[in-house]
Batch of 2 targets.
Target 1
Amino acid sequence: MRTRPLKVALLGCGVVGTEVARIMTTHADDLAARIGAPVELAGVAVRRPSKVREGIDPSLITSDATALVKRGDIDVVVEVIGGIEPARTLITTAFEHGAGVVSANKALLAEDGSALHAAAEKYGRDLYYEAAVAGAIPLVRPLRESLAGDKVNRVLGIVNGTTNFILDKMDTSGAGYSEALDEATALGYAEADPTADVEGFDAAAKAAILAGIAFHTRVKIGEVHREGITEVTAADIASARRMGCTVKLLAICERAADGRSVTARVHPAMIPLSHPLASVREAYNAVFVEAEAAGQLMFYGPGAGGSPTASAVLGDLVAVCRNIVGATTGPGESAYTRLPVSPMGDVVTRYHISLDVADKPGVLAQVATVFAEQDVSIDTVRQQSRNSGSGDEVGIEQSGGGRRVGGSGEASLVVVTHRAPDAALSGTVEALRKLDTVRGVASIMRVEGE
Ligand SMILES: NC(=O)C1=CN([C@@H]2O[C@H](COP(=O)(O)OP(=O)(O)OC[C@H]3O[C@@H](n4cnc5c(N)ncnc54)[C@H](OP(=O)(O)O)[C@@H]3O)[C@@H](O)[C@H]2O)C=CC1
Ligand SMILES: N[C@@H](CC=O)C(=O)O
């Protein structure tokens, strides 16, 4: 065992950083045994140095993160500040000054991963970021290392704990959206600005990282199609239930059949209750990986929160420290080639469309014609009259398109399609909006996982 301790600079001591510092202290002997050298917390950079931080030697705390990473004796920098700047400059400076880096910062990796990897390679240092995707779940290293000899074609998962928590609460306990969000924030799942969670930015960043590692390419967050959960209503959730489905925010990354391009998208979707992702509750995450030789793999576990995320950070810290002790580095990024990211219009899937229509003869025929003109095949149609008082269904159409319309006034028409390109669906919706008899498009949701 080497006796000189490896020195670690911790940048950020919030939800995640506090737990990283605690585990480094309480598990110091175990970490030393696994690494082959003791590790020492050499400094902790925060924004508010006067705040009392339980369990942390006050003499280690500084507000000058730059000076800490430039000290010259730091072996590993753990960045758990978040955001783009100053995190990006601090990580690059760490490489320049000879340190390896562990980061949980998905926003930065999805925005500028290429440049960070290039800087790590230039200075011969490690950049590890297991905690950036799906909290405690080992996913980055299995994709980057264990599956490096296979060909991954699809990654589909729930990668944001906050939104899964909110949708789960809305579904199972009938909680309101705001109430569920407040609870997720109090539990430390949500980002500093929860807009990143509920508008899908956090999941989109994770999708960009996953697509990059899975397909050995580079995908930036701006290339990921993104829709959040703010428009998901109790009616959508009830409608999903009627179809034997539940609503989840999914991240889906796919390699095209010809292998020449990829797609990456994040949006709410209905999935059948029989699908394993349907039973992923609260802030848990789960990711399906489909690889040519391995088949289907599922990764499941806590996707957010201080302690689970710190577990992933500590795993990376051990790996980077081991590499330093062994005078080596982890897998580099030079084998990556850039595949184009296809637009959302090329994605083929099924849709659940809820329309408010005039409840009179001929409406269903008009609506069906629009779908046919756009070459979008209808699977099922369900009509619910607004005049029935109780809200009971008054007409159920069979698969494939028979017609039954009656009464007058307004009705709600729910159309579920067969698989069709997203561009064709957009064209259909645009044409539907122009029909006099269509009073509004209440919701559009993709149906996945069948
Ligand atoms: N929370 C979670 O469940 C997960 C978080 N992550 C990622 O981990 C990272 C950290 O998240 P989290 O711990 O929740 O964030 P917090 O907001 O709880 O903590 C951020 C920390 O960074 C410090 N900080 C902010 N700006 C600066 C600065 N300019 N210089 C020095 N320190 C600064 C803050 O200081 P101060 O304490 O003084 O305010 C605080 O200690 C993010 O990238 C996040 O996306 C990843 C997976 C899960
Ligand atoms: N806000 C994120 C935290 C982990 O990445 C989430 O809710 O999943």
Target 2
Amino acid sequence: MVSEKKEEDASGPPIQSMQLGVYRVVTEASLPFNFREQWKRSAKLTPTVLRLVKDIYSSSPGLFCLYLLFVFWNNVVDSTLSLHLSGRVLAIIEEGLKAGRPDGPALFQAVALRMIGLALSAAVEWCMDHIYERLAQRSDTRVQQFVLQCKLATDLTGVQANISSNHIHERLPFQVFYYLLQGVLYSMGAVTQLGYVIRLVRSTGHGPAFTLICIAHPILQSTLQRVLWSKPHIVEADNPHFLRKSGLRELSDAKYRQDIITGDIVAYVIQEFRRAVNLLGDTDISSPHDQYSRQSGYSSHLVTKLAVELPMLYYAVNSILNPTAFSLSTIATLHQSETLLSYTFQSAFSFIQYGAHRVAGVQALYDLGNVAHEMKDGDLPYPPLDSRHEQGMPFELKNVSFSYPGTTAKALNDITLSIKPGQLVVVVGSNGSGKSTIVKLLTRLYDATSGCILIDGQDIKSYRIPDLRQATATLTQDHHLYPLSLGENIGLGNPARVDDLEMIREAARQGGAEDMIAKLADGLGTVLERPRGLQWSNLEEGEKEGNEQLKAAVEKMKKEADVSGGERQRLVASRTFMRFTSNTVKLVCVDEPSSSLDPQAEWQLFNNLRQVREGKTMIFVTHRFGHLTKHADVILCMKEGAIIESGTHEELLELGGEYCKMFNIQAKAFD
Ligand SMILES: Nc1ncnc2c1ncn2[C@@H]1O[C@H](COP(=O)(O)OP(=O)(O)OP(=O)(O)O)[C@@H](O)[C@H]1O
């Protein structure tokens, strides 16, 4: 079922949405060709093309020039030269046939020349392939470095606003460069081949009609065929039965095994899958691109097909009307030229159709470097030279409200609060009450939407961000292990001492990870999260059977060590202890890091953290009342983005409010 609907868009070209089977497809509406518009759009992309060419050139100037030379030879010179040399061989053969005696030396010379041409062409292609990969890899590395720098420099607000930048493929710039190069060369090739064909046709006494017939097929194909790839488009599967069927199919994934088995829902899943299939019926689920192409009607399909045979019809008609017009060798040469010309024109047209779209992809990559960083850096050093920060970082929050980027709901609502240097603050409250958010604002991962946060009487935004980062240690349950060695994972808590094994071991002891590291065969050298794609095999079990050597090779592949959730938390905690070795930390924020830790490990972790408390303000977010709340200088109890109670454990119990209620629920469990 196909339906098309045009939508007016205030800025940019109008868009149209259509239903193709189970997909909703939104594209730019097809407008009548407007040269000025096209020119304006292409001109906008010129700086991107120039930057792209400059980038590829700078990645290796020598290889770049050599590659251009070879590609020019291959696409422009070689094809026309091959036509000419093959044509000569055919002409000599034909003359020999007519005379009844072949001209041996001339034929030998022509064939030898054609062979030399072929050998040269193969050599150029071989070199081109090698240079292509080298040049491409150098370009990829530059792109990877650029993307890495841009992404690492992006703050959380930028990350949240730029979801699409995750899908960048490093080969894209080189592929587009190659594509543009091909486009230019195909166009040049088209001109030279056209020149050759016109000359050949003239020499046989035929006019431009035959030349037009040669290029009719590519022209008709590019104008009559509907190609979705040639325009910007969005595809979304929106058929509810198709979506349900896909969701149910995914339940066979290994990650759901345990839930499916324990839930005993196999029969339900199969029955629902069958139901979804029945409801979906014969609705087209094939690729939307194929469905879009199939929309070109039968007549355009037929016309395009017929156009391929036009030159043949021309020879046939001429052989009746004017039997001496074409010799067989001329027909063979013309047929060869016409095939080549048709292919070249087709490629040149496709370049014109897709070029702008592909360059826009590179533009999106370059735009990564222009992501506006919401987080503006200040110029005050931290800690201020004249302050009393030996005790820890002091805070003053004045009417602070905050909504996450792209949302309107207030995660924090009008918070006013004072934290003295060196205080141990414990934040408690129900899920979603804003506990983690407050920590994110104090560590300047986000800026308040309204109100202000002062450190030592100065706006948090006026301090230099790198100084604040160095003065802060965080430990949350959201931390991840890096795909690096365990030693680096811990050592990077203090990058300046990442190689100091003694310090790393001590941090591992404090974080409770010492014993688990000792159990691993590679110890601190173990890499837990191996970067994806570094080892794989496409062997089926049957292929290994009977081939002992292959089996042994597979067994030899490095098995990835794995650790439990609690052990991961211990490793991350060790990284935080390593951070303290920098002696710059004035604020420690610990956000519920103990969810997977056993009670002994949790108790040990908090004790070890309290032992390094000297000279640091400590903020703990927790759901568990016990070790921490008793030691807290102040407990903040949060609800719906606001602080509803604050005071010591005893004060809040006496108050008999929300904190007292939550404490009693936990205490009762042990009565
Ligand atoms: N990255 C985010 N984008 C949008 N909204 C968010 C984001 N993170 C949190 N929120 C929302 O902000 C509110 C406060 O969340 P926050 O994580 O601070 O709560 P919490 O008290 O720490 O909860 P929990 O006890 O469950 O960890 C919630 O409504 C949450 O849904």
